[in-house]
Amino acid sequence: MSQQLKQEIDRRRTFAIISHPDAGKTTLTEKLLLFGGAIRDAGTVKAKKTGKFATSDWMDIEKQRGISVTSSVMQFDYDGKRVNILDTPGHQDFSEDTYRTLMAVDSAVMIIDVAKGIEAQTIKLFKVCRMRGIPIFTFINKMDRQGKEPLELMEELEEVLGIESYAMNWPIGMGKEFLGIYDRYNNRVEPFRSETGRFMELDEDGQLIGDHPMKETSYYEQALEDIELLNEAGNDFSAERIANGELTPVFFGSALANFGVETFLETYLQFAPPPQGRVTQDEEVVNPVEEPFSGFVFKIQANMNPAHRDRIAFLRIVTGKFERGMNVTLARTGKSFKVAQSTQFLADDRETVAEAVAGDIIGLYDVGNYQIGDTVTVGKKLQYEALPQFTPELFMKVTAKNVMKSKHFHKGILQLVQEGAIQYYKTLHLEEVILGAVGQLQFEVFEHRMKNEYNVEVRMEPVGTKVARWIENEQDVKESMSGPRSMLVKDRHDNLVFLFENEFATRWFQDKNPDIKLYSLL
Ligand code: GDP
């Protein structure tokens, strides 16, 4: 592999932002894109989110709901690095794709609302990152608003998420009294809304040099006191532990006021890892510079253009370089074909990509060849390990409105399940179909696609939120254990699964049947 290609790969930084809705992901993303020069006007990303952004080929469902299912990949250059931000849809568009996207990044940025602390969706997404052991960088947002005490938030990180933290900077006041951040890492103070320049220097004792009205405030005093406490009792800074995902560097700021964002970006880029290798099914680690082109599909976007019924398979490049017109092999089927059409994603519009390297995400036009988790290679035959399945929380019983369409109904379901759009379960005797999802949107997309692609109208009846648990010792399960609060079903691999009414029903069952060993997927 040429030195130039190695350098190209090495400058990639690919990450996703994890947060609970409203913490400020869109606002922060937009500011990052502005710094990277990828967009010119503030409001571009926002407008896309609220649906004011007219892009002709969005999915119908996207238009109806005014949300972005397309959830693109955004790319920009900063400080010699090429940054790829993968969007992780939240709100109603939360789905398994959101989790799978986290399989395609090398690090994550976790945004926390200073007033709300760690919220439900953040916990879920954090767990996936933790499982992968990728570095997680924390941005505590909305410091221009009154919120929780910073020390309390640091404690929350350790107690709720179980991750140790290191404050890279520390707020001086907050809300109306927010004066700036004390940058422990870069040894400077960055004043908020100041006309005296972006940074103020510190002396050897960590005090602001010279006279400054800030020094007279109790907020400055408090910040220094807190920092002393952190120096004495807090975790030590360790680049190695950050890289292993054991220690999260914490930054404070305000995305809306564009304060602390550039400092965050610069420091983040120093520690964020370049493209990492992947493990194959044979448990071999393949490094980005080892092989010619290879990658895996982590998401399939259907119906980008309803007239053509085409789909786009999102592929994370793991090794080497992709060039348009390349002959690639799909590991699962052994089929080879030429990739004529591919796409790279930018903030504003899709662009045709001529070449891309390890760390980048490309979109491959697809007529039904790809499934989620597929490995695509050139040359050496290899297959990356399967993507994990996630424990669904929402369930729907589904039937065809017209019984005459039963064949199409089953064909459609089979394909959509294989593709990874939705999870499939069936009841034991009647073999009624129950679909599982982690987000409501998956059902809507399912319904829409059954109608448009398979010409079958479906009836969906909510079975409600459930706790799904797989069973280690299936042989000990008796059908009599199945009841309205503990429904026994089979998954698509014919494994038995209990769908419990709620956590309470799960515990009740476990008390009554202590010998049955239950477990959940991720
Ligand atoms: P998302 O749902 O995580 O993408 O959140 P948004 O970026 O859409 O932000 C949610 C709301 O919080 C919007 O009204 C933003 O204007 C507001 N917001 C985001 N960042 C800040 C901040 O730093 N300070 C304040 N006061 N509001 C913010």
Give a written overview of the molecule.
There is one protein chain. The chain folds into 3 domains: 231 residues, Rossmann fold; 84 residues, Translation factors (Elongation Factor Tu (Ef-tu), domain 3, Beta Barrel); 126 residues, Peptide chain release factor 3, domain III (Alpha-Beta Plaits), CATH 3.30.70.3280. It contains 13 helices and 31 strands. The strands form 6 sheets. An 8-stranded antiparallel β-sheet has the order 18-17-23-14-15-22-19-20. It has an 8-stranded antiparallel β-sheet with strand order 27-24-26-25-29-30-28-31. Helix 11 crosses helix 12. It binds guanosine-5'-diphosphate. Guanosine-5'-diphosphate binds next to helix 2. It is found in: Cytoplasm. One of its GO terms (biological process) is regulation of translational termination.
